[in-house]
Amino acid sequence: MTNVPSRQLPLDLGHRSAMGEDDFLVAPGNHDAVAWLDAWPDWPSPALVLFGPSGCGKSHLAQIWRARARANLLSVEDLRGEEDLPDLLRPTRTAVLDNAQAVAGDPALERALFHLYNLSKEMGGHLLLLADNAPVNWVIRLPDLRSRLLAAPAVGMAAPDDSLLMAVLVKLFADRQIRVGEDVIDWLLTRTERSFANARRVVAALDHAALAAKKPITVRFCRQVLGEDRDGSGPAA
Questions:
Q1: Rounded to two decimals, what is the model's pTM?
Q2: Where are the domains of the chain?
Q3: What is the reported pLDDT for 106?
Q4: 3-class secondary structure for 67-113?
Q5: 44-60, pLDDT tens digit by residue?
Q6: Which fold has domain 160-226?
Q7: What's the DSSP call for residue 234?
Q8: Which CATH superfamily is domain 28-156 in?
Q9: Packed helices 196-213 and 219-226: angle between N→C axes, nearest 10 degrees
Q10: Can you give the pLDDT at residue 21?
């Protein structure tokens, strides 16, 4: 994983998917989460909760851990068949449960997650639970599940700040073999929603528009594509 430099990143990368370990930028807002996942399999609990707002990078970080642990990716709906729960941890005894807070308030899902947690412990495996907020804020009705979740380590991730978002934008352009001026990055920083997902959408939209128009990506071109007052969520209509 790459630490964010003070101002710029080297622009010598080819166009490739930015979802691998070398593509994850470590910054203060995600440093603790990276450290916890790097510590696997020496976790003190069968489960680790990784929480943060949409776009903070937890899905990217979970994908890195999935590749390392060869973990299954689960949705809460996968928990519905209780008789199939052991299969959810096979063959590597590891799994990522996305949107884990969605089990709260559903008796069947709460009971299934409780059993999956116990199975993970019995098998010597691990669960990575992804959520928008910490388990202390989940309205869990099943006392035994609530106690286990509150006992599990929970680490938060923050939305990217300006320095991290700047590094991400520079890298996303570099992945597409596009060089842009610092003025373009600064302009986008003031008009881009603070999320990695949105930064990827913006760079993809600008790349597509620039190829179609056969023009370089300048501040003026960004204004034409995204609109002067838009938040960077997509091309102007």
A1: 0.70
A2: 28-156, 160-226
A3: 96
A4: HHHCCEEECHHHHCCHHHHHHHCCCCCEEEECCHHHHCCCHHHHHHH
A5: 999 999 999 887 889 88
A6: Helicase, Ruva Protein; domain 3 (1.10.8)
A7: S
A8: P-loop containing nucleotide triphosphate hydrolases (3.40.50.300)
A9: 100
A10: 53
